[in-house]
Structures are given as C-alpha cells and as structure tokens.
Write a structure and sequence with these properties.
- Two copies of one chain form a homodimer.
- Chain A has eleven helices and 21 strands.
- By secondary structure, chain A is of the alpha+beta class.
- Chain A folds into four domains: about 80 residues, Rossmann fold; about 60 residues, Dna Ligase, domain 1; about 120 residues, 2-Layer Sandwich (D-amino Acid Aminotransferase, Chain A, domain 1); about 80 residues, D-amino Acid Aminotransferase, Chain A, domain 1.
- In chain A, strands 10, 11, 12, 13, 14, 15, 16, 18 and 20 form a nine-stranded antiparallel sheet that branches. In chain A, strands 3-2-1-4-5 form a five-stranded parallel sheet, with helices on both faces.
- In chain A, a hairpin with a 4-residue loop joins β14 and β15.
- The mean pLDDT of chain A is about 95.
- The interface between A and B is large, with 44 and 43 residues.
- Chains A, B: It catalyses: 5-amino-1-(5-phospho-beta-D-ribosyl)imidazole + hydrogencarbonate + ATP = 5-carboxyamino-1-(5-phospho-D-ribosyl)imidazole + ADP + phosphate + 2 H(+).
Chain lengths: ~375, ~375
C-alpha cells in the first residue's frame, strides 16, 4: 500500500495530547489522518486532516469511523474492542489488534496473562467489587498493606491507591478490582518495545521513573536508567518476552519494578505512545511517535538508541491552584541549556492535572538530571 | 507578554512548507497561530489555529491581517513591506522588521548593503533591465562569464543563471537585475544566526552545501562542514558581522562562498527558517523552527550545537516525470540507519520541483554523508 499518497487514510481513536504528538509526526510522511473523539475541543483537531465526533466506547461510532480508514490505531486504551474486532474481520488493519487490547484493557486479565505466559509480576487477588475486600482482610485471605487497582479505566495514577489500613478503602469506587502485594523496590523502570507486522522488533533503552509521592504521577523519566548493564539486560529481556507474548503491532511500553534483590517484576503495559517515552522526541534517533507510525504502517523501524541523555519532567498543576493556567518562570527554565517545554494547551489548571512536560537533554545524564531538578524547582503551574 | 495563553496571537505571512514546519514547533509552546496565504490549498492549513486567504503583496490584505495579531513573522520574503511598516508604527511587533526585509528583498539593495557595511561579497553591476546587459558586454563594461540574478522574487535557483556566452541571456525575463563576477570557490557554506529583541545572539555550526549542477538547487547540506577550524571561525565571524549590520530579529541564514584561497564572500541571506537548517530538526539541540519562535517571542535562545552530525538531501522531482507523485524506494531508505524523510505533500511532481527532504543523522559526519549518498541513489521522485 502506498502510504505516501492521498488515497491512504490513517484513523486514530482518541483526540488527546498523545494523539496530537502522533499527528505531528504524521506530517513527516504526509499521511492523511482522521481522528475520532467525543470532545469537540479535542487537542488533535489542530493537527489532523479530518475530525469526527463520537464516543470511543460506542460500537457504532467506532465501527462506522473505522470503515472509512485503511489503518486504525488508538492513543487511549478505553475504546470499544468489539467494534475493533468487527473491523478486523472486514479487512481494516487495526494496530494494536483487538486481541492485544482486550487483554490489556482489564488489569485482572492483564495480570492473568502474565501468569499464563511465565512473566514475573507481583502477586495479586481479583475482586468483583471493592466492597468484597474487607471480608478477605478480616478472614485472613488478604494481608495489609496492598495496592488497590480498578481493573478498568485507570491511568496516570487514577484508579490506583495504596491501602495501608482498612479505612483507606473508604471512598474508593465499588468496581471490579485487583489487590497487589506491595513490593519494596529500588526503581521503577520502563522499556518501550516496537514491533511491525513483518515481525521486526526493537527496544528503546531502559528508562528509570521517579514518582511524585502523593499524586502517584511520574515526576522524572530518566534515560538511560542509572542501573547496571546486567539489570538493564534483564529488564530488556523481560520486556521482549512480554512483547512476544502479546504479539502486538506498534509500541508497547512495559513498566517494571526493580526489586531490592534486583528481580524484575512487570507492573503493567500500555500499547501506545507513553509518558515514559516523551524524552525520545529530543533524545532518541527516532521519536516514539514516528516509531509507532513506522510500525503500524509496516515500514522499517528507526534507530532506538539515544542521541543524548534525556530527562523528562511532567508539568502538573500545583496544589492550591485552580483556574486559568499560568506557567510561572517558564522563561527562566527556557534559559537553561537543553530545555524544551511541551505545553499541552489546557486552559484550566487544577492540583496534579497533567498540563505538559519538559524535556532536558545533555551529553551526560548527570547534567540532565541536575538541570531537571532546577527546572522542577523553578517552574510553577499555577492559576491567574 | 504571556505567550503561553490563548490571548496571544502569532501571525505568519505565507502558508508554505517552511510555515508548516514552523507551526509544528508552535505546538510545543501552545502558541495561538494565524496564517495568511493566497492559496486555499496552502500546506499550513493543517497546522494553524486560523487561516486567512489573501495576497501577501497586497497592502490591505497584509495590513488588515497584521492588525489581528500581536507578533507578525513571515516564511517567505515576498510580502508587502509598506504594510509591515504601517503595522510597526501601530505597535504590532514585526520580526524580522520591515527595514531588514526591505534591504534583503531586492538583491541589488542587498549587495549595496554589504558594500556599505564592509562585508566581503563578489563584485557586481546593477541593471534596470536585463536587455541593457548586452550593451555593457559589447562596450567592455562587463566581462563574460558572470552570474545573472533577478533582483526580486528569486529563490531556490529561480531567478539565477550562469551566463557564459551572450546567447545565454536569451529567454531571461527583462527585469531589474544584477550581474555578479563568477567566483571560483571550493565550497558553498552557510551559517544560521539567531537574535532576539533583547540582543541575545547565537550561531549554528557552519554547514557545507553541495548544489545539483543543473538545477542550481542544494543537493546535500552537510553539518558540520568539513572545513578547517580557521575557515569555520572566519565564516562564523562574517555571518555575525552581517547579523549585526542588519540588527535583525529571528533567524538569518547567511550563505557564503569559500574561495580557492580561503576568503569568505557573502552570497545572500534569508531572514527566516532556511533550507540550510532543515537538518537541525534531527541533528541540533534546538531546531531552527523552535529557535525562530524563541527569538521572535523574545524568549531565551536554545542551544545551537549538534547532538549528532547531520546531512540533508533535497527530494526533487526526477527529470522526465510530471504528474501524481510516487516516492519510489522510500521504504528502502527508511531501512537505512538514522534516516527520516520529510514529505511535503505536494500531489504533483515535475522535474526539479522540491517535493521534500530527507535527513540523515549519525555519530560521524563521514557515515552520515555515505548514507546520504545511498539515499540519493535509492530514492526516486517520479510520477504514476
């Protein structure tokens, strides 16, 4: 198929910030793009050829949209997989596939998939409803502390809570959920694996994530991770094993824990461009967004190694501020060497809302990390 | 001024490919953009917030458009400078200024400017009309061979011709023009200088250009240029002198000849993102497009050094093909390491039409140059 012609059409489910960054890279290849999103104010609107309004969980909306494109991908996991399956049967290329997405969409199914495929992951229990957890604790079937996770619709720290005492369950939605054993770990790591339909596979360098202790959102993504070559190899091998098990097409971001005795446990995966890969825009030979396009269009994969070291800082709304956003000191951080802000264009900030990210690149990871801290200390996402 | 808010509006005169790449980088800062172009099919349409139809040489069109924005820039030199001047008087920030642009727009004025400012440039003569040249040759006032240049509206090899014998003048438009002494040179070099209203200045590394012998279009841009540090310093110093003389704001691409005895002569300048800076997207710490935005918004300038070596290959229509374009072997070049195509999305190709460019990056300039030749030998811009 000739992708570089106006007859070809790429469909993207979801019109958010990830989709917008993906669309930016479609410009390199002059791919004709069509986006489906439920919001008439979706960020993607500025960067696509066609925009369609529709609910991503609605069968008809996704199916009818999918029928108008040649290749269909998504920037968010919460889409109607039955519609994807129906489209696949009718010859639309859906990447990642409905099968891959189904297993990932539900965290309980995802965990069972790891167990079935011999992939190391933290022990867990599955509950049909959150209100069944208290009984399990009372009768000794479940020990505190643990991590509560909604099986669906959780992302960026939503749908996840550390439960140290039974009262911490209060206020949680009464939904299907899992509880995971708390693993004491040294590091949270991630590896992005990319695979095209031809079966070509490549991995990005291991990144290290530092989370904000309260908001449970990534604060720094550090690439390459400051770990031993042995641990990096182990993490990469496990990520490849996960990738092989899913037999996915496109990007697969594999998030992992490095335990205190250097075991690697898979936490969760995302079959799309991911927060742990934003630094690839500036630091890698091929950005994760270009790479996803190469993969789903069955083009040759690009180099995945680093041009420079890179650190990514999430820009989240400061506590105590809600309203029209101001990026205080943004000019100050732009004067620091190797610093590029990415502002997502949301008008209103609120505590911990993800408003953008900043990439810091440098010849040395130590310098990049140091500048990243200066960035973090200087910039404030506040309201007018 | 708070650029990172929806109240601010950046205006761009010209909706072509350079503008589109500039617009892509406005997304990092979430700048609200408005574009004026005469074509309803301008490439920029996909990437701007607002699009206005209008002739860039028409006073009213430019003036009325300019009144709706806070900062006004352009991606093409052929715009109405009287309108820019009127806008400046009414407080619109026009970068580069009407004064800078006026001097550059007319090649005769540009050459006189170099002479007035002690900037080395090839000797030249000015003619009100092309048909006056033959007399000058006949009466011994002008010697063959020379380079004929239209003083206006020339770019990408249009409006330029090497005249070796008097018959070569046939078919040239009868317009205001200059004739330049042919300078035997080793290299064509270029330096991009950036300057913001605060007076901060930075220079990109010297690049070396190889031109296609027939089409007079750049075939390879090589960064860093394979020249001695002394020559690089001389070229950079002269580019800075030109920049200082213009007192410009934004990018200034300074094209130069390195003569056989290592003198540097300024050929011409462009006050905007330039073909000689496309490799900065992948190879530099800060792309020329982001840098132009930083400059015209009076933000701190970004690093201008290289992350990697880079070579840029122009994709121009092959001879003998006119019609719906096909990028033959594009998948083959995408399998080469460090290769990213940039397809401009023009539907029809014709001989020597600029259809896109390809960037090749690598740790070593020798490797990048070698791969660039493989790219050049493999890809063919042909028609269906």
């Amino acid at each position: 198929m000739n992708y570089f012609s106006s007859n070809f059409k790429l469909g993207i489910l979801g019109g958010g910030q990830l989709g917008k960054m993906l669309l930016n890279d479609t410009r390199k290849f002059d791919i004709h793009t069509s986006v489906l999103d439920a919001s008439p104010e979706a960020p993607c609107k500025i960067a696509c050829n066609e925009f369609h309004l529709g609910d991503l969980m609605d069968f008809d909306a996704v199916y009818n949209f999918g029928k108008t494109v040649d290749v269909l991908t998504f920037e968010i996991e919460n889409v109607n997989t039955n519609a994807l399956e129906a489209l696949e049967k009718e010859g639309v290329k859906v990447y990642p596939s409905s099968k891959t997405l189904r297993t990932i969409q539900n965290k309980a199914t995802q965990k069972l998939f790891y167990v079935d495929n011999g992939i190391p992951t933290a022990d867990f229990s599955r509950f049909a409803y959150t209100n069944q957890i208290e009984d399990a604790v009372d009768n000794g079937g479940l020990k505190l502390p643990f991590v509560w996770k909604s099986t669906q619709f959780g992302y960026d720290g939503n749908g996840v809570k550390v439960v140290r005492k039974i009262e911490d369950l209060e206020g949680l939605p009464n939904v299907e959920c899992i509880t995971e054993t708390m693993i004491p770990f040294k590091n949270e790591l991630a590896v992005i694996v990319v695979r095209n339909p031809n079966g070509n596979v490549a991995t990005y360098p291991v990144v290290e994530m530092e989370f904000h202790p309260e908001a449970n959102q990534v604060e720094y993504v550090i690439c390459p991770a400051r770990i031993s070559p042995e641990v990096a190899k182990k993490a990469t091998d496990i990520a490849l094993k996960v990738s092989k098990a899913y037999n996915h097409v496109g990007l697969l971001a594999v998030e992992m824990f490095q335990t205190n005795n250097d075991d690697i446990l898979v936490n969760e995966v995302a079959p799309r461009p991911h927060n742990s890969g934003h630094q690839t825009i500036e630091a890698s030979y091929t950005s994760q967004f270009e790479q996803h396009l190469r993969a789903i269009l069955n083009l040759p994969l690009g180099r995945t190694d680093n041009k420079t070291a890179g650190v990514m800082v999430n820009l989240v709304g400061a506590e105590g501020y809600t309203g029209n956003v101001i990026y205080k000191n943004i000019e100050k951080i732009m004067a620091m060497p190797g610093v590029t802000p990415h502002i997502y264009g949301k008008r209103e900030t609120r505590p911990f809302r993800k408003m953008g990210h900043v990439t810091i690149i440098s010849e040395s990871i130590e310098d990049a990390r140091k500048i990243a801290e200066d960035v973090k200390n200087a910039i404030q996402v506040i309201s007018e």
